[in-house]
UniProtKB/TrEMBL annotation:
Species, as recorded: Natronocalculus amylovorans
InterPro entries for the chain: Creatininase-like_sf (IPR024087), Creatininase/forma_Hydrolase (IPR003785)
Name of the protein this chain belongs to: Creatininase family protein
Pfam family, one: Creatininase
Keyword annotations of the record: Hydrolase, Metal-binding, Zinc
An annotated GO BP: riboflavin biosynthetic process
Amino acid sequence: MTAVSGDTFRVSEMTWQEIDTALKQTQTLLVPVGSTEQHGHHMPLGVDVYMPEAIGERVADQVPALLAPPIWYGVSPHHTFKPGTFTVSTDTFQQYVFEICASAAEWGIENVLLLNGHYLAQDPELEIVVRELRTKCDIQAFHVPLVNLFADVAEEIRTGEVSFHASEFETSIMLELFPEFVHMDRATNVEPPAESLSLTDYDALGENKVGWSLTAKDMEALTPAGNIGDPTVATKQKGKALVEAAVSDICLLIDDLQKDN
């Protein structure tokens, strides 16, 4: 499949007439969902939005899809121990995301992919939003946490033992997408406790068997820098592999959605 014809696929850059024309080619909307929160000494607060928006852009450049403006504010109470972090309540966040997607259904969107850059922490909220969109708005909605898309590749290429927040995976992706925002000379390795509770793990690919979360007090005790894990082993090459895995999987889903239309 090819991308939407025209000068752009970004909703924010299009006129309503251009949207109307684009809807004849696709009824799929990519919605980058992230947060504005601390990412250690070496990366900016916008990481969780920069990643899904850039990945969405690469997807929409290959297959028919529209790219919505990103959602910058998420559920991040555990990061408020550092300045610059914004957070909203679960109820506010879910209602906001739901209403954005529901309004898109009013003008012809049938498929919504919530590209979640604040994965793991924000997964429970978006799973509920997807269910509500499907039951109340008759939208084919999907929660797309980036880590699930690149997990297999990440397991193969990782060199650090722990990558939980602002570490090997996120830093590598940012080196591929926005190297100008990454300050590797400031990156520091922050090792979590050697032991965690049974069925939990301080790693994005860890053996987590039960739901759990960290508070701001927990995070402050775990990391003076803000990251958990080792960002110093991140590379642009790793980031390229992770991004390509995510883009490829999303394109596969959109191709299937196009066939159903």
